[in-house]
Write a structure and sequence with these properties.
With 483 residues, this protein is of the alpha+beta class. The chain is extended and about 75 Å long. The protein has 20 helices and nine strands. The longest helix is centred in the middle third of the chain and has 35 residues. The strands form three sheets. Strands 3, 4, 5, 6 and 7 form a five-stranded antiparallel beta sheet that branches. A two-stranded antiparallel sheet has the order 1-8.
Length: 483
């Protein structure tokens, strides 16, 4: 299966070059940060995103799948209407949990349209930038600390999202903590209401996904039985037709899934024989988390070095046609996401960016300038240090990148994303590697690390839980759509 560039492939707002510079598949991380940072940070982080979106993959969530259900009025704690009422916070939460599917939908939609994409004007950045200091830069990094909590989170994720970590029962009774596979139909005054019906829905008992009484009402029910749950929607429920109303949910329990406790046998099964005991499995998990954290720290340091090099350099002129190209891309990006969330452009940027439509062009131009700063600086460093391969070597680099992301060859990759984007990805990696190899990397002292905006321990725990969060988001997407 061809790997996708994910959300970053849409973020032309941080330059067309960022399509491949930000390729999440090369970083092998799972997070929605590309789409989230573009939505929430807007101008102040958009230029950084050209470098930092490398960690913005969300393929695991998309691949996890979701229950097929009509969810416009699911018995979830909140409805689509209540999410709209709650304003920017709820919408931002929705954007985060939907980043993977939103980006995928947009990309698929874009692929389906045969309209010719605007051609990016090409310039040699060396002609427009005066380089400042870029070799020997000092970057502080957080120490790596893998906590027991991070290990526990990763192991819990391994158990929950592996077929080897659970067992499905078609008899017995529903217990707290089970994942119950259910069919349900909700009725008000004897009439089924829109969105209150689903088949094969997997509900974690005790997750408080559905309204009060729904999950508790299933505890003790025999698998195979059908029960009626007499419930009441919350007064604050977003759907005015259901808020505060008495309803009856007819629920059939098809099966229950229970997760296993980690023991030596399960440890061996989950590790495909690499670990024979629980302790060996924990040590294996610790090593994997440490490797992930080190890679993440290195990528973060490279991004910081790119940012520093650009800040130390001076761009003499911003070609207007290139600025216009980026401004158009930025607007297209936001318009696409606005459409996904059923909002008009003005409302979307007001909610997500806190600006008016009249203020948008100035913000977009600022982002364009910051993106050009980064691109031109990378161009100039690559030229000064002769980092971009030529001829057969460049062709081989195209093919190698294509193989990594699932294309037949470099020509096919360039046809999909554009020659400039592919070349820039190769150039970007070469420059970031060069800056890192020639930098002074200093590990923060414990007290400095503790006072930082984010610690390595937090990063490790976040990395450990990302797979769980992504899969959980996908598994519960039907209910979240209703929120």
């Amino acid at each position: 299966m061809r790997k996708r560039f994910g959300a970053a492939s849409m973020v032309c707002a941080v330059s067309m070059a960022a399509i491949l510079a930000a390729a999440p598949v090369l970083a092998e991380e799972s997070s929605a940060s590309g789409a989230e940072s573009a939505v929430e940070s807007v101008a102040e982080s958009a230029a950084e995103s050209a470098a930092e979106s490398a960690a913005s993959g969300t393929d695991s969530a998309a691949e996890s799948g979701a229950a097929d259900t009509d969810s416009s009025a699911q018995p979830g704690a909140e409805s689509l209407d209540s999410a709209a009422e709650s304003g920017a916070e709820s919408t931002a939460d929705g954007a985060e949990s939907s980043a993977a599917s939103a980006a995928e939908d947009a990309e698929s939609s874009a692929e389906g349209e045969e309209e010719e994409a605007p051609v990016r004007p090409e310039y040699n950045g060396s002609d427009y930038v005066t380089l400042g200091e870029y070799k020997g830069l000092t970057i502080e990094v957080d120490p790596i600390e893998i906590t027991d909590a991070a290990i526990d989170t990763r192991i819990d994720s391994d158990i929950h999202y592996s077929d080897k970590g659970s067992e499905v029962f078609t008899e017995g009774v529903v217990e707290d903590g089970d994942v119950a596979n259910i069919d349900f139909e909700g009725k008000k005054d004897g009439v089924a209401f829109d969105g209150g019906t689903s088949e094969g829905y997997e509900l974690q008992i005790g997750s408080h996904t559905f309204i009060d009484g729904f999950e508790d009402g299933l505890i003790g029910v025999n698998v195979g039985d059908t029960v009626d749950l007499n419930l009441k929607f919350p007064e604050e429920y977003g759907n005015a037709d259901l808020a505060g109303q008495d309803v009856v949910f007819t629920v059939k329990v098809n099966s229950v899934k229970r997760y296993k406790e980690l023991d030596d046998a399960l440890a061996e099964a989950l590790s495909d024989g690499e670990a024979k005991t629980v302790e060996e499995y924990r040590e294996r998990t610790r090593a994997m988390l440490e490797e992930d954290a080190l890679k993440s720290r290195e990528e973060s340091a490279k991004n910081d070095l790119i940012t520093k090099a650009a800040e130390n350099s001076t761009v003499s002129e911003y070609p207007q046609d290139l600025v216009d190209y980026y401004v158009n891309d930025i607007r297209t990006y936001y318009e696409t996401y606005a459409s996904m969330y059923g909002m008009d452009f003005a409302s979307f940027i007001s909610t997500m960016a806190g600006i008016t439509e009249e203020e948008f062009p100035a913000m977009a131009e600022e982002i364009a300038h910051q993106s050009i700063d980064t691109e031109f600086t990378i161009d100039a460093i690559a030229e000064a240090e002769k980092l971009l391969p030529e001829g057969k070597e460049l062709e081989a680099a195209y093919d190698a990148l294509a193989e990594e992301v699932g294309f037949e060859n470099g020509a096919a990759l360039a046809a999909e994303y554009g020659d400039y984007a592919v070349r820039y990805k190769i150039e970007y990696d070469a420059v970031s590697d060069f800056l890192y190899d020639n930098a002074n990397i200093v590990e923060k002292q414990p007290e400095a690390a503790e006072s930082g905006a984010s610690s390595a321990a937090e990063a490790a725990e976040s990395a450990a839980s990302s797979a769980a969060e992504a899969a959980e988001s996908a598994a519960s997407s039907a209910a979240e759509t209703a929120e």
